[in-house]
Amino acid sequence: MAEWEIRPAAAADVEAVAEVRAVVMRPDLERLGRYDGHLVRQRLRDAFAPEHTWVIESDGAVAGCVALRPAEDAHWLEHFYLAPHLQGGGIGTAVLRELLDRCDRDGLPVRLNVLQGSPARRLYERLGFTLETEDPVDVFMRRDPATAAPPRLVL
């Protein structure tokens, strides 16, 4: 696994995070015929909430982010992006496990949406998310604390 760290986001991170989002989402959005470089960055800028966001860094550079937005009946996992060269190496799984452990302690479900056909869906399913609903563009998923995998015992 590559060296990485996670830290709370700051308002100044918005442009670096918007750029990672544009790179990560481009293949899926192009496949769906919906890629617009300006719009993909602007949507992140408009929704960026540093108080609910963490930045993933690798080799001293912004390599991704993840947001966990509280809602009345759930946490919403949003803006989870990891630079393509770091995907598949276990970083995403490690980051999500930590966040899901926090949510389990709160006793609330976690919801998210992922683009149709995105390989990220397999990661979410491995970590206990199940299909709630879908449309031609998005898949909406949910993970309940009661259905989460039991904690791993360390002997």
From TrEMBL:
Q: Where is the N-acetyltransferase domain?
A: 4-146
Q: Say yes or no: keyword DNA damage present.
A: no
PROSITE patterns from the xrefs?
GNAT
Name by which UniProt lists this protein = GNAT superfamily N-acetyltransferase
Does this UniProt record's set of keywords contain Nucleotide-binding?
A: no
Its domain of life? Bacteria
Q: Which Gene3D superfamilies match?
A: 3.40.630.30
Entry keywords, A to Z: Transferase
Stored Pfam families: Acetyltransf_1
